[in-house]
Design a protein that fits this description.
mainly alpha, globular
Length: about 300
């Protein structure tokens, strides 16, 4: 089983890195499955493959819970009443942001059959959404840079010091409930594979005036109920189908989850530091290149 363990760890590594970057974890998992010997769908069937692609996210989400547990735990006895109320308000904002995508996910799970799900997860759909949102990221970041240049120019014209750009929402705590709902509505788009849940929530938060660090952190927060809910729905559906897990299937599930958890701990910490000094424009170009690569591999029958 050592060969299966190594492959499972690689899947977890890819999930742990790409789940939190705005580059689509699904697109990368599809690329990994194109490596000879890594196609789990042909080996275990489409039911397990669909289940695996969702359940492996559990490792990544456990890393978020651990990373932000102190910040999102309203039950700590060390908190003041003011801090506790602030955390409960944050959870209300998270729930508001999750309701639209949660409802859409449940409806799709009920209404879509396996053939329709397979079509939605097709490489061409993933490639198109990778490219489209890659372009959006580039446009958004160039627009942000233009606004910041104009702001600094206006300060210079008034002989004022060059202060940092005053984002409408500098922190997650300052996000309004209505803005959280708007971000949640945009998050519904992430149901289409290749969109990237983190990508579309970060992009929409930037659009509504959040700083990059606030947009990224809120995206992390939204992932907790959304990904836990998606995993629960997929688990119930998988159990209903009556599929029996073999030893190899369990290896992929558990080693993939553990690997995704450990890698996510590192990626989340690094990304929060990175966004304070860099833009997301580079991810836009990366998405376009990745989408083009998937199209080429699909046309060459390397992936199907």
């Amino acid at each position: 089983y050592m060969n299966d363990v190594i492959k499972a760890l690689l899947y977890g590594l890819v999930e742990g890195v790409t789940e939190w970057l705005p580059v689509s974890s699904t697109g990368h998992i599809i690329l990994v499955s194109a490596i000879p010997g890594f196609n789990l769908e042909s080996r275990f069937g489409s039911a397990f493959w669909d289940f695996f692609m969702v359940i492996i996210q559990l490792g990544a989400i456990l890393a978020v819970i651990l990373k932000f547990f102190k910040k999102l735990n309203p039950l700590s006895l060390k908190l003041t009443k003011e801090n506790r109320n602030s955390i409960w308000k944050m959870w209300l904002k998270i729930i508001i942001g999750c309701i639209p995508a949660g409802l859409a996910g449940v409806l799709l799970e009920i209404l879509m059959n396996d053939e329709q799900t397979k079509m939605l997860n097709s490489p061409i759909v993933v490639a198109c959404t990778l490219i489209i949102y890659g372009v959006f990221f580039i446009i958004m970041e160039r627009y942000q840079k233009k606004k910041q240049r104009e702001y600094l120019k206006s300060l210079a014209g008034q002989n004022l010091p060059a202060d940092p750009y005053p984002y409408k929402y500098q922190s997650t705590e300052s996000l309004s409930y209505l803005t959280c709902l708007y971000i949640g509505l945009f998050q519904m788009l992430s149901i289409i594979p290749g969109t990237s849940r983190s990508g579309v929530t970060i992009l929409s938060a930037l659009l509504f005036g959040a700083s990059r660090s606030a947009a990224t952190e809120y995206s992390f927060f939204l992932s907790i109920p959304i990904m836990l809910g998606a995993s629960l729905i997929k688990l119930i559906s998988f159990i209903k189908d009556g599929t029996v897990l073999t030893a190899s299937m369990n290896i992929y599930l558990w080693f993939g989850i553990i690997s995704a958890f450990l890698v996510s701990l590192v990626v989340i910490k690094k990304l929060m530091g990175w966004v304070k000094k860099h833009t997301f424009e580079g991810f836009g170009y990366y998405r376009i290149c990745l989408g083009a690569l998937i199209v080429v591999l699909f046309c060459c029958n390397v992936i199907a």
